Each structure stands twice: as C-alpha cells, then as structure tokens.
Amino acid sequence: MLDVVELHASHGRIPALHGISMTLARGETACLIGANGAGKTTTLRTIAGVHPADSGDIFLDGNNINRLPAHRRVREGISLVPEGRGVFAQLTVDENLRLGAYTRDSGIDEDRERVLELLPRIRERLGQQAGTLSGGEQQMLAIGRALLARPRLLLLDEPSMGLAPIVVEKVFEVIADVARSGVTILLVEQNAHLALEIADRAWVMESGRIALAGNAAALREDPRVREAYLGEA
Ligand code: ATP
C-alpha cells in the first residue's frame, strides 16, 4: 500500500535522506530502526508531508502523493503520531481527540466510540486537561487522536520515548490492537527489541540510507543487528 521510491530530503543544505526506498503491504506492521540522527524521523515526516522531499516518489495504493500537502495526505489516509506526541496541554482530552477528526465531517462519534473502546484509560479522563495526563496517557491520547482521522496508514514516531518500561508495554499493547484492527503501521523506534518484536517487516537506517531490510524475525537473528542494535555480541 505504501511505496517509497528513492526519497531524498534535507535540512537546509544538509542532506538527511539519500534515496530511501521501502515497500509496505496493507495490514503489515513495519519498523524503522537505527541510531540517533540516522534519518528515521525525517523519513516519517517526509511521508506525512510535513517535511518536503527534494526528490523521489511516495505512492499510497498506487497514487503518487508526493506533491500533496500534509492535510491532503491525512484525507488520503496517512496519520502521523509525532515524536513528543504533540498533545495540546491546555485543551481537554476530548478536545484533543476530536481535533484528530478535523478533516472529516461524518461518522466522527462512532469512530470516537471505537477509539475509546481501545483506550479505556482515555475514556476515564475525557474532561481533564491533556497536560495533566501522564506520559503514557498522553501517548495513548496522541494515538487516539491520529486514529480519529481514520487512517489506512499510521505513522508512529518513537512511541516509547521517555516512558517507564511498564508503560511502554501498555502503549505497545495498544499499537498491537490497532494493527489487529487492520491499520497498516510504520513505526520508528529507538527500542529495537520492542520494535522487532511487534513488526512483520523492518528496515535498518544508517546515515540517511537503508542499510538492511527484511522480515523482522530474520533481522532479529542477523548478527549485525544483534550487535549494533540489540546489544548482543
Ligand atoms: P532521532 O532518533 O534522534 O530522532 P533520527 O534517526 O530520527 O534520529 P532525524 O531526526 O531524521 O534522525 O535526523 C537526520 C539528520 O538530520 C541528522 O543528522 C540530524 O542532525 C539532521 N536534522 C534533523 N532535524 C534537523 C533540523 N531541524 N535542522 C537541521 N538538521 C536536522
């Protein structure tokens, strides 16, 4: 469903992506792992359209979306949960959730109900200011908000960041539930253990390039991955 072809992007004059190509099938969960600064966030942001591509193509179900602005890509079914979650602290939890549906005009209440079934902790806190939620709850809220755009492809940037291990586990349970509901997921994650466990397919990025690609289970056994990303000699 997602085909990224020879994607190049930069920050000012400094290139960050040197021709990234990746293919993701409908219903798959995929992850992008790699060291700090490898270009993972830039890849997600460029797919979402919040960072411009210098060249290359991005196809969603065969349609080239590379020229579409970010809000049009949301309409086409791409939803990004940004690094740091991007929750609006002063708004209530419910207001944050509903913002996810800003590109839509029907079926919102039904979808909100479905999302709340997935996120019971969020339901309990609907009237609360979002800034008062714990980090894990804010991550769940950010995921819920993204789901209210009714995505076909959900992009998640570092969902485990800054969370205690037990909370990370809960967030990943939610991500697995979302995957089971049929949403295709592309996840960027520092925690390669977790990412490779949840994913069907994975790419390892190094210095703006794809260094390794394949089935996540196979990559987990790859000596290069074990040594560099899983902390095993
Ligand atoms: P991290 O895990 O730290 O987010 P990453 O793999 O997601 O790393 P990117 O954030 O995509 O990597 O960064 C790729 C490269 O682009 C890095 O060299 C980084 O320093 C540079 N870069 C990222 N954001 C900017 C920016 N706003 N301005 C200038 N350079 C940037």
TrEMBL record:
Gene Ontology MF annotations: ATP binding; ATP hydrolysis activity; branched-chain amino acid transmembrane transporter activity
Keyword annotations of the record: Amino-acid transport, ATP-binding, Cell membrane, Membrane, Nucleotide-binding, Transport
One GO-annotated biological process of the protein: L-amino acid transport
Residue ranges annotated for the ABC transporter domain, each copy included: 2-232
Name recorded for this polypeptide: ATP-binding cassette domain-containing protein
One Pfam family it belongs to: BCA_ABC_TP_C
Family assignment from sequence similarity: Belongs to the ABC transporter superfamily.
Source lineage: Bacteria, Pseudomonadati, Pseudomonadota, Betaproteobacteria, Rhodocyclales
Keyword Ubl conjugation: no
InterPro entries: AAA+_ATPase, ABC_transporter-like_ATP-bd, ABC_transporter-like_CS, BCA_ABC_TP_C, BCAA_Transport_ATP-bd_LivF, P-loop_NTPase
